[in-house]
From TrEMBL:
Catalytic activity: Couples ATP hydrolysis with the unwinding of duplex DNA by translocating in the 3'-5' direction
Ranges of residues in domain Helicase ATP-binding: 1-165
The protein's name in its UniProt record: DNA 3'-5' helicase
Top-level taxon: Bacteria
Cellular component terms (Gene Ontology): bacterial nucleoid; cytoplasm; replisome
């Protein structure tokens, strides 16, 4: 309300939405909310409308007619809240319209996506500070469930927040029972998984559950092998057709209690309060990712079980995901490739499809895409939607690409460190909630003496 950039870290289900809804109603201009998922924006806009306020939604799911109507609502001042995506904000006509009506608050929901997705598959997250400039540099509110000190620094740098107020309400979710089960190989994991999902205790019997898997193949295999559970089983991953994903999500959210086998593509923005169990079939890449994912359990405040099946062999896959870094020459080659491709294959705006560059690029498609994403983070090029890219600088110097290469190496090292941290968590005999609070620098947070994590329960039994 004072016009200061702010970063808030509040656990899932604790009311982050109120932090922009109330100021948005009190301030004069439009509140722009950037959401990573279309379903999340739809749900937030629905809640806004139920409060009697007008909200416009601008994303790829809307028809041309709907978009025109929403543009008219914005222009007339009827829409108090505008929900959109990072990709849509790259369109200069939208930024122009919003800047003309006046933006009083710029909101980045699920701000951890800036770190986790920006350099992987949503490069537009790296360009949000350019959109903010075109909107007139309104005060920015970034929101996430939690972030480590390093992730906070990355969010602040990427969004170019100015001396932000950082508000953290803690990480502890005492209703979530954390445990780690040592495992060895797929056969044992399947046995453990079946036993967990058939647990007849009053805590989780016949209640909704999510099983997170590291790969699409694992999702499909488990969905097939465990199809004979007493509860319905569902699957969700990024290669499913859109209609199938929507149907699976709808069945889990509104249908009878079911088990969802999914990659980490599932869960963001899922407002289902009674998920009683979250199981990680494979070790995640970081404590941040793990906290975000198991935090989807027990949003109603009732007890829920969060279990990690830990097999050290899984680390090979995560180390592969962590990947390598890019060097300066690759970045310059990618920039030159885009310029040449724009001359040969570009449209009237100068944008060119990534797939059209394959014949003229000495780099592989994935490496070329990674280079483009890094160059976009420096404002040297920009995604144009539907796999197309536009060059924003005709020339780049060695200093710029050397700096980006150094940043790439640093990110790669951070991913390796993050993997080491989740391994330390899995192998620790200390209170698991204490380990999480320590990681997120909230050591002063009071962990209940009656903590129900597996390590604390074991200690209590041994003492007795």
């Amino acid at each position: 309300m004072e016009g200061r950039d702010t970063l808030i870290l509040m656990p899932t289900g604790s009311g982050k939405s109120l932090c922009y809804q109330l100021p948005g109603l009190a301030l004069e201009g439009v509140t722009v909310v950037v959401s990573p998922l279309i379903s999340l924006a739809e749900d937030q806009a629905k809640h806004i409308r139920e409060l009697g306020c007008q909200a416009a939604i601008l994303n790829s799911s809307k028809s041309a007619k709907q978009l025109r109507e929403f543009h008219q609502d914005i222009q007339s001042g009827k829409a108090e809240f505008v929900f959109t995506t990072p990709e849509r904000l790259q369109q200069s006509d939208l930024c122009q319209l919003l800047s003309e009506v006046g933006v009083d608050l710029f909101v980045i929901d699920e701000a951890h996506c800036v770190c986790q997705w920006g350099h992987d598959f949503r490069p537009d997250y790296l360009c949000l500070h350019y959109a903010r400039e075109r909107l007139g540099n309104p005060p920015t509110l970034a929101m996430t469930a939690t972030a480590s000190p390093q992730a906070i620094d990355q969010i602040v740098r990427s969004l170019k927040l100015c001396d932000p107020a950082i508000v953290a309400t803690g990480t502890l979710r005492p209703n979530l029972r954390l445990s780690v089960m040592p495992s060895s190989g797929d056969v044992e994991k399947e046995r453990q998984l079946r036993a967990l999902l058939c647990d007849g205790s009053d805590l989780i019997a016949n209640e909704p559950a999510i099983v997170y898997c590291a790969t699409i193949n694992t999702v499909e295999r488990l969905h097939s092998q465990l199809a004979n559970l007493r509860m319905p089983t569902l699957a969700y991953h990024g290669r499913m057709k859109k209609a199938a994903r929507i149907a699976s999500q709808e069945a889990f959210t509104n249908g009878p209690p079911a088990v969802m086998f999914a990659t980490n593509a599932f869960g963001l923005g899922i407002d289902k309060p009674n998920i009683r169990r979250v199981i990680h079939h494979d070790i995640p890449g970081s404590l941040e990712a793990y906290y975000q994912e198991f935090g989807r359990a027990g949003r109603d405040g009732e007890l829920a079980a969060c279990t990690l099946l830990y097999d050290r062999e899984d680390l090979r896959l995560q180390k592969l995901f962590a990947g390598g870094s890019l060097d300066s020459s690759q970045l310059r080659t990618a920039h030159h490739t885009l310029i040449q491709g724009a001359h040969r294959y570009g449209d009237e705006t100068g944008s060119v499809a990534l797939k059209d560059l394959k014949p003229i690029s000495p780099l592989g498609t994935q490496t070329l895409k990674n280079c483009f994403q890094h160059l976009a983070s420096a404002g040297l090029m920009a995604p144009s939607g539907r796999g197309r890219w536009t060059c924003l600088a005709d020339k780049i110097d060695h200093e710029a690409t050397d700096r980006l290469a150094d940043e790439s190496r640093l990110r790669s090292e951070h991913r390796r460190i993050a993997l080491d941290q989740i391994v330390q968590y899995a192998e620790s005999t200390e209170c698991r909630w204490w380990r999480i609070a320590n990681h997120f620098a909230t050591q002063d947070e009071q962990v209940a003496s009656a903590c129900c994590c597996d390590n604390c329960q074991t200690h209590a039994i041994n003492v007795a």
